[in-house]
From TrEMBL:
Pfam families xrefs: MS_channel_1st, MS_channel_2nd
The protein's name in its UniProt record: Small-conductance mechanosensitive channel
GO cellular component: a single term: plasma membrane
Mechanosensitive ion channel MscS domain span: 116-183
Predominant cellular place of this UniProt entry's protein: membrane
GO molecular function (one): mechanosensitive monoatomic ion channel activity
Compartments, as annotated in UniProt: Cell membrane
InterPro entries (UniProt xref): LSM_dom_sf, MS_channel_1st, MscS_archaea/bacteria_type, MscS_beta-dom_sf, MscS_channel_2nd, MscS_channel_C_sf, MscS_channel_TM-2
Gene3D superfamilies with a match to the protein in the record: 1.10.287.1260, 2.30.30.60, 3.30.70.100
Source species of the chain: Allocoleopsis franciscana PCC 7113
Length: 282
């Protein structure tokens, strides 16, 4: 009778290999799944943290100018997002050190390339913080900048000129030079020099004050003043100084000059037959 021999060693080896593979696959799946779950949790935490940081920053910088406050809120949200991304990569087992180094090098290169832009940004932060002018103010700045402030941004300021042209001025230009805000005090004194020739001083001062004080745009307080500025053999110069609201400055200046010119011409004509003609002081 013939006996059959069956070698089970290869079968056992294959069974052991399959068991080892299944075990390692389960361990790998458990590790990867854990990392994915932790990474997803970090994404959710980052989303919540962005809202929380934005809310906190909004409350902390509530007294700050709205444009600057909005920028600070956005900056805090971006910073929180970057931290979340780094944590997300670390949770997946990706080394974030090299990524941070690359981002830092790129930031340095961008910073060097955008030096002027960064200077405009720094000047914008200082302008928004110190607030030497506000929207609606009339300013006179370096390089002939002159007009009403239309908008104040982080990098530039928009100004509407007296001839209704909108110009954009880099903030560093405004911050680095002398800046005159002609409407900040709400009232202005109009300084006029009047040459009265050889007319008598006291009656002329009374005449000028009687012309200026009733003007509807001239303020009664502070009072209009008129006094002698200089005397020479050929001319007597008077200072005529009415006060008005800042936005009416040019109109008051023009109309007062016209009134004075016409009044002095009339006094010239009325006294032409009584004294020798004098040179027109204008």
């Amino acid at each position: 009778m013939t006996s059959l021999a069956f070698d089970v060693t290869p079968v056992l080896n294959r069974f052991d290999m399959a068991s080892w593979f299944n075990k390692n696959l389960i361990d790998l799946g458990f590790q990867v799944g854990t990392k994915l779950l932790w990474a997803l949790a970090i994404i959710l935490i980052t989303r919540y943290a962005i809202d929380l940081v934005a809310r906190f920053t909004r409350r902390a910088f509530n007294p700050v100018e709205p444009t600057l406050r909005k920028f600070l809120i956005q900056a805090s949200e971006i910073l929180t997002l970057v931290v979340g991304i780094v944590a997300f990569l670390s949770a997946l087992g990706i080394q974030a050190t090299s990524l941070v180094a690359v981002v830092g090098a790129a930031g340095l290169a961008i910073g060097l390339a955008l030096q002027n832009t960064l200077s405009h940004f720094a000047a914008g932060v200082m302008l928004l913080n110190q607030r030497p002018f506000e929207v609606g103010d009339f300013i006179e700045g370096p390089q002939g900048v002159k007009g009403v402030v239309d908008a104040i941004g982080i990098f530039s300021t928009t100004v509407v000129t007296p001839d209704n042209i909108k110009i954009t001025v880099p903030n560093s230009n405004l911050f680095s030079g002398v800046l005159k805000n002609t409407t900040a005090m709400r009232t202005r004194r109009v300084d006029l020099k009047i040459d009265i020739g050889d007319r008598p001083i006291e009656p002329t001062i009374i005449l000028l004050l009687s012309l200026v004080q009733p003007h509807p745009l001239v303020l009664s307080n502070p009072k209009t003043t008129c006094h002698v500025a200089s005397i020479s053999p050929r001319a007597t110069i008077l200072y005529l100084r009415p006060w008005c609201r800042a936005e009416a400055y040019e109109q008051v200046q023009s109309e007062i000059l016209q009134l004075v010119k016409e009044a002095l011409n009339e006094t010239n004509l009325s006294s032409a037959g009584e004294r020798e003609p004098i040179d027109d002081p204008w």
